[in-house]
Specification:
alpha/beta, 2-enoyl-CoA Hydratase, Chain A, domain 1, 9-stranded mixed sheet, 5-stranded mixed β-barrel
């Protein structure tokens, strides 16, 4: 009897322990909150990829990756629902994902078609919603029609190898990656035919998550939501979901037209410095630089620190010109900071990169900046020649508070010369920066300083007459 009782206790103990653990509630999924402001330190960043894959989505994803890396994000999750889209944008998104050091995951809910399937291969793990599908990535024309046979063969051959490489580097079966894009590819896993030759591979959630030989065919698992994925994947940290801004699409055109915005900013700044007061050219320059930096920020190419360096450089130049002219050093440092910021704003650099960017990433930014500086140099040359003689420009920049009076006084009708002679003394009526107004013999004339800027009320000496203006220096 003692033996029987002891045996009963030993047999009942494991059952009671199992029952106790079965009654224990499963761990609740974490809360997913909308991102407001900066990304929290160590957060799990959820990046929605909804609708057709496009360049705007690439800009959004790149911006969030860089912001997340700066905050030491613990993981990035692509919340994907796309029928496909631009192959070029998909390649850029995949390249951006391959640079991320933190864990990357794709949650297919419910579609990862065409380009979406290829992007998913760029992440370390793929998870599926209970009712979802992934695959069918054969390239087609932008109109949806079939690509000509020869061109299709080239595209499929190249991108099959490309996405096989991406899949293999992330631990996915490269055969499946090729079958997504090449319908002539037959795939077998553990003796089981996953895809027959002549068909593009498309997999349901259950097919993708099926385990053969103890390893899933493609997907790590099935989760009912992003929150469940975070729990089941064992990710740690606050979970925040980012949202694309309405400015993402505009960022594409701003970055494409970067040289024109730089051109407008440089020329506007030049005209503003050449004229008294703050007028339309200064406003145009400010808007051009603002759009340039805003577009590149939204495109994920620059951060606020680059904008801060640009503003610092501008302040140094203003201090040099307004308060302590002639120092040169401040203006030189400020100019270098400004142009360095403009260049760096166009460089695609990731915060976690351990190496200095390769020379290749500087080629396009240098080309854009070079084109802008070259065109600005030509425009400034012509403005320097004709600026004092163009009434439209003069009316554009002169302030209404400047003194009135005749702009010219002739010795005789038809003589064509100003009454001012070299050596005549007068005074500046407005800031000569270097163009403004000066008074000689009780009359007001257009004047241009040769040398330092001259403040209002300072004595000036006429050096010579050029066209319709008097060239002066400080008395």
């Amino acid at each position: 009897m003692r033996f029987i009782l002891l045996l009963a206790v030993l047999l009942a103990a494991p059952c009671a322990w199992a029952q106790k653990n079965d009654d224990k509630p499963a761990e609740a999924p974490p809360e997913v909150s909308k991102l407001e402001g900066a990304i929290p330190e160590g957060a799990v960043v959820v990046i929605p990829l909804k609708g057709a894959v496009s360049q705007a989505q690439f800009y959004f994803l790149r911006r969030m990756i860089k912001a997340g890396e700066a905050a030491n994000a613990s993981a990035f999750i692509l919340d994907m629902d796309t029928p496909g889209g631009e192959l070029g944008a998909a390649v850029e998104i995949l390249q951006a994902l391959m640079k991320v050091e933190a864990p990357t995951l794709t949650y297919v809910d419910p579609n990862a078609g065409s380009a979406g399937a290829l992007i998913a291969l760029g992440t370390k793990q793929i998870w599926m919603a209970p009712v979802s599908a992934i695959g069918a990535a054969a390239p087609v024309m932008g109109t949806g029609g079939e690509i000509p046979e020869t061109l299709a063969a080239k595209v499929v051959s190249y991108y099959s190898g490309y996405f096989r490489s991406a899949a293999e580097s992330n631990g996915h079966n490269p055969e499946i990656a090729e079958a997504f894009i090449n319908k002539e590819k037959e795939v077998k896993v553990g003796g089981k035919v996953i895809n027959e030759k002549g068909e593009l591979l498309t997999m349901s959630a259950q097919e993708a998550a099926e385990k053969i030989g103890g390893k899933p065919v493609l997907a790590q698992g099935i989760a009912g939501s992003v929150a469940e994925l975070v729990r089941d994947a064992g990710l740690k940290g606050p979970v925040v979901e980012a949202e694309p801004s309405g400015f993402e699409k505009a960022a594409f055109y701003i970055t494409m037209l970067a040289p024109l915005f730089l051109l407008g900013g440089i020329i506007g700044t030049y005209i503003e410095f050449k004229s008294p007061g703050f007028g339309v050219p200064g406003a145009i320059a400010a808007v051009c630089f603002l759009l340039f930096f805003a577009g590149h920020y939204v495109a994920g190419l620059t951060g606020m620190e680059v904008i801060a360096f640009f503003v610092l450089g501008l302040l140094l130049v203003l201090v040099e010109l307004i308060f302590i002219p002639g120092i040169v050093v401040l203006a030189l440092i400020g100019t270098l900071l400004m142009f360095g910021s403009l260049l760096w704003a166009m460089v695609d650099y990731y915060p976690t990169a351990t190496e200095w960017p390769s020379p290749d990433v500087f080629l396009l930014p240098l080309a854009n900046l070079g084109v802008a500086i070259g065109l600005s140099g030509v425009a400034i040359f012509f403005l320097a020649q004709f600026f004092p003689k163009l009434p439209v420009l003069r009316r554009l920049v002169l302030t209404t508070s400047e003194p009135g009076g005749g702009s010219l006084t002739m010795d005789e009708p038809g003589a064509g010369q100003l009454s001012v002679r070299a050596g005549d003394r007068g005074k500046a009526l407005s800031m000569l920066r270097p163009v403004g107004r000066a008074e000689f013999g009780g009359e007001s004339f257009d004047a241009r300083s040769e040398g330092d800027f001259i403040p209002p009320g300072a004595g000036v000496v006429a050096l010579r007459v050029e066209g319709s203006e008097v060239v002066v220096e400080r008395a």
